[in-house]
Amino acid sequence: MSHGAGGDDSVEPDLTAMLDLVMQLLMYFIMCANFIDQENTAEVLLPVAQMAKPISRDDADVLFVNVDQDGKVLILGEAPKDLDATRLWLDNRALEAKTKSGDNSIRTAIVVRAHRDASYDSVYRLMQACKDKGFKRFKLRAMIAEGR
Q: Can you give 68-106 as a three-state secondary structure string?
């Protein structure tokens, strides 16, 4: 591409700024897309159920709470918690859910993903703590049996 009359000088467009913008957008989407997979941690092996159903899209606000085989609660981006620390975390989430709803009600669904070797007692105590904080909607996750 030449500019002016009689000149053989060619001018190349500077693509540095455009490539920088493309790389920043790519990095942003890579960072945001991986969070949903981390909520469903592979450290928790789900129990097998005959009638397991996939999660539905009708729940707009969902909290994933994982329970490992030792009864510790695993939450995305945080260290494993005991039940007392989980109660404090749930209290903060309940306050956020109440302010988000506008009418002081909690519409958030709690998805409990318990390890197949976790005790029923630890799962029950977790669900009771959620209920004490005002959460009313629970979903338990399991794997579909191989025969289905």
A: CCCCCEECCCCCCECHHHHHHHHHHHHHHHHHHHCCCCC
Distances (CA, A) of 62 to 7, 22, 50, 135: 65, 32, 24, 11
How is residue 89 written in tokens?
């975390």
Q: What is the pLDDT of residues 38-82, one digit of tens each?
A: 555 556 665 565 555 555 666 667 888 888 888 888 887 788 888
Token reading at 70: 């030792």
How confident is residue 34, by pLDDT bands cut at 50, 70 and 90?
low
* Residue 10 DSSP class: B
Task: Answer yes or no: are the C-beta atoms of 97 and 55 closer than 8 Å.
Answer: no
CA separation for the pair 12, 62 (Å, rounded)? 51
Is the CB of residue 86 less than 8 Å from the CB of residue 73?
Answer: yes
143 in Cβ contact with 48 (< 8 Å): yes
What pLDDT does residue 19 have?
Answer: 92
| Distances 26 to 3, 19, 35, 37, 38 between C-alpha atoms, Å | 35, 10, 15, 18, 19
Quote the tokens at residue 9. 């000088």
